[in-house]
Fold:
Amino acid sequence: MTSSNFIFNGQKKEFLDWLESLKISKYWLDTLSIEDSYALSKEILEVLENFEQLELTPKEKLFTLIEIYTCLKGLCVKLQESYIKSQFPLADQDQEYADLISNAYMALAKSYYEIINADSVVKLSKKHIALTICRGFQALNNALVNYSEIYKSLPNEFWPLYYRLYSNAEIFTVMNVKVKMDEGVFSIALLLKKVLILYIIDTNQLTPREIREIDNYAIKIAQYVDLKKESMEELNRGVGFYFEKDIQPEILKPETTKPSQSLRFINIVYIIKVIQFLIYEETENKHKHPVNIELLKYVIKGVIEKQQDKSQAQIHKKYSCYALIGIYNIIDFLLEKEDKMETERHRIEKADFKHKDKEEDEIDSLQLMLDWDENKVDSEVQQSSSLIKNLQIIGSSIEGYQLFWEQQSGIELQIGQVIGIIPDFRTSRNRLEIGLIRRITIREDGIIFNVELLGLESTLIQIEKEDSFEASEWELFLFGSPKYDVSILYNREHEYQVGEDISVLLRNKKISCKLGNILNSTPLVNHITLSYL
Structure:
């Protein structure tokens, strides 16, 4: 009998038998096949979507949801272990499975809210009310993390549900009541701050593995940061919300923000200070709190960017830009540009300059060549057939770009594709910024996609294996990255291994290097650190 049958038929015994089957050993859960895990996740989501129809007391519902959460958490861990190591985008079956888990966490949070919102809630003690709301925020936190890990936007009901849980915590005066859960002892105030902090940090541009690390740090940050509601003088450094309005939290401005009893916000400067404290603590005592310092530094940059004035942090007008999709097109484009540059150099070297006087003989011919050369070559390269010319930058931050593409035919966009962006030929000259497409939103009028910036500039290189007679291969050398100083992007068809010694041909020089850690892996490319030998 399926879950929907016993819910719609009100058969409590069958439901309780099904619930008992969820009280399973970890061994049984670990041995589930991917098909069985998918089926169980689908069944759990179906139960949660119809949970309000179950004829159970509020306390029975609460502890039923706790059992469901335990099983859901196990399924989630099992799923994450597979896609945390996999390429993106995920395979269709894995994507469906991940979507099920994310949606199930949202349905779980809604079920906790329905318990609190029911007339029968008066039968619960204050401790149980606090536990129910805590569990609701815990489910929202897990939903946020899971949606971020699979590069999906939060559903429209996420923030309204967050605000309603918050409002109920205020009404029942249980905000600071401490309750024990599997992960430790928490209060509603702590968990709701954690969710808001994760949102402020902005997980959109992080990899799944990094998101999980930041999720662990966020509870530490929440312990030091206050949720403010009266200190209006700090609004210019705050991100907050009105819990009677169903809109996502936003950067607050004193000139546009009106005092309200429902206004709540977090001071961004405090978040930065706490993260800096974690970095300092790790530096002082490496064994006390092992944290990823480079990741925290990157997070600080993102938080600082949100602290800045919107006129600096976001582009309100749309600006045209140029782009190349795919590493093959980027390499071909740069080769074409280098060929044109070389042709111009030879032409100028052979030119018979006739100067009128001695002063003109002293002109720096090399500088003259470069100044004239860039304008002409840029103009010619703009005619490249692989260059997309009708893209618009609608958002820009330290992490990357948000782009809008009105045309939807000709090139297929995928999460994980490499993209080369030239913000403006007139000002950027040879600068080609390299990124990965992390998120895609399809609209009626076009496509919006978010790009994580990997390198602010790029240079063509050739790489080959040490002591190898095989032909060298064209790849990309990246530098000026927000995360890492030096790295390379190479085609996945070329077989290189982490830690392998290679030779890099850069500006006619052969340099011995070693491949470091993989930073990003997609079906087409690997992004990997590079060190010199």
Summary: Residues 58-83 form the longest helix (26 residues). The chain is about 45% helix and 20% strand.
